[in-house]
Amino acid sequence: MLPSVLSKSTTSPSPAHLRRLLPASSIHTSTPLRHAPIGGAPSPSPPPAQTPSFLLPPSPSPSHNHYAATLRSCVLSRAVRPGRQLHARLIVSGLGLDPALATRLVDLYASCGHVSHARLLFDGMPQPRNVFLWNVLIRAYARDGPREAAIETYRAMLVHGGVEPDNFTYPPVLKACAALLDLAAGREVHERVARTRWAADVFVRAGLVDMYAKCGCVDEARTVFNGTTTRDVVVWNSMIAAYGQNGRPVEALALCRGMAAEGVAPTIATLISAISAAAYAAALPRGRELHGYGWRRGFGSQDKLRTSLLDMYAKSGLVKVARIIFEQLVHRDLISWNSMICGYGMHGHADEALALFSKMRSEAQVMPDNITFVGVLSACNHAGMAKEAKEFFDLMISEYSIKPTVQHYTCLVDVLGHSGKFKEASDLIDVMLVEPDSGIWGALLNGCKIHKNVELAELALQKLIELEPEDAGNYVLLSNIYAQSGKWEEAARVRKVMTNRGLKKMIACSWIELKGKSHGFLVGDASHPMSDEIYAELERLEGLMSQAGYVPDTTPVFHNVEDDEKRNMVRGHSERLAIAFGLISTPPGTKLLVTKNIRVCEDCHVVIKLISQIAQREIIIRDVNRYHHFLNGECSCKDHW
């Protein structure tokens, strides 16, 4: 007999219980449900026509059809409790071994998240099991876990099942491979798919693209995409998301344009992926275009799109616009709260971030998670609020029982290091519940640079070299600390080590996007077509700054050269060139957004504050550490970065 997933009782459920549990669609009568004998002759009253057929003695065809229809209804409505009652009735009625009904029961339990029950039934069914049954189980494991079981079941299907997978088998298996980052298993599936007629199926190919993307093999994902002859919106969306998830937002946006050019109408999933890419690339004009397109297509009222727009505007520096969208959300879920809090935090608006966090806890009754506290601690870090950061860190553990991750520790070490509290930072690292990574030691090293703590900087660098022996930036930072302290011989020794190991310093680069085109600048760059005008604008601004009392600070130049040469090096920094180009290329009052691949130096920070006051412009700099909002001679970081 088919194994039961219910209690050990062999008696059938009471009709009254079934009446409460079974959906109305499965009862073919308009009169109230009454007791009818089960397993014996029907009573003379009420008449048989008014009695639910599944409670009557089993007859070969009608009972089977009614049971099948009722189970189908339970599967469609995910009604597991009535399904369990009907399962008990099948067992006592002798229909428990019926393959068609048992298959529907497996589907019901799997669809409702009771995978272990589905597996118990599956294992008790006689061979051969059809491909639908295997697919139901594989899909359930891929969705609810354990995902390793999805891959194991797929392999068992091939070896023991004697069943050929179809186009409903491969997508969930690939989904499991992607979730586990199991590239070897994913390639194994790909090799088998390539030998079948399902190799051209759009859902299978979308699954392959997603699997390679999640495993970090974007170029292989693109190869699969290029080899897809019929590309529907699912395949396009998978490839756009692949670029976005792997830090290649420019290609994601270009592919989105290519999709529209080929006449494939973007869906809301397309827009969300493309908007996320625009946020990552700080491509505000592209994000605004997508925003407008979404409204024209009628997606503007959907909270999913609004949440992605909120995140994009926050990352692009338009925090006020992000807050307006946040307030327009019909339902503010945890993701939207986190996006807004983290948006405030990354831009140095600590007061707003903490006020929103307080509102989230008191008014919204939304339970914060580890990402929420990353945003809160980041806000404290960017504002130099070491005391508050420690309090929120303790709150996270004591009140919400959230286990600190390396991101939480990094924020706390960073703010302690910035504040010169090296003893507390070192003690925290010693008692961390996770292994310190390069982010932890990098945060400590950065604090050592600010406060010229050479001894601790050497320890931090030693740990960084063990973790990242090929990262030239670590050596450069220690060399700069030595130079800042006047230890030129030690600085030269570190740079010699870099040379001997073949390590090269990252070239500083800044870029600004105007009228849909990105303009990049290097230090001392003279390659831009408007180079003469750019340097003329810089010279004009320097004259006005000198009148205001500005004197160049050459301490960021860590080379043992004359002061005049140091001043020339500083004045040609890439962010200054990008800002000058933006000033001469846009109307007065236009906000400028410049992105830089390394940290803004101290002298440039002073200069940009002065430029924002002289030119009466808001200038946003997004460097490797944070956002800086310059307006009226002040910066949002309050000189803490």
From TrEMBL:
UniProt feature coiled coil, ranges: none
Entry keywords, A to Z: Repeat, Transit peptide
Region annotation (Disordered) ranges: 32-61
Stretches forming PPR repeats: 130-165, 232-266, 333-367, 471-505
Domain DYW: 549-641
Organism annotation: Urochloa decumbens
Lineage: Eukaryota, Viridiplantae, Streptophyta, Embryophyta, Tracheophyta
UniProt superkingdom: Eukaryota
Protein name: DYW domain-containing protein
Biased composition (Pro residues): 43-61
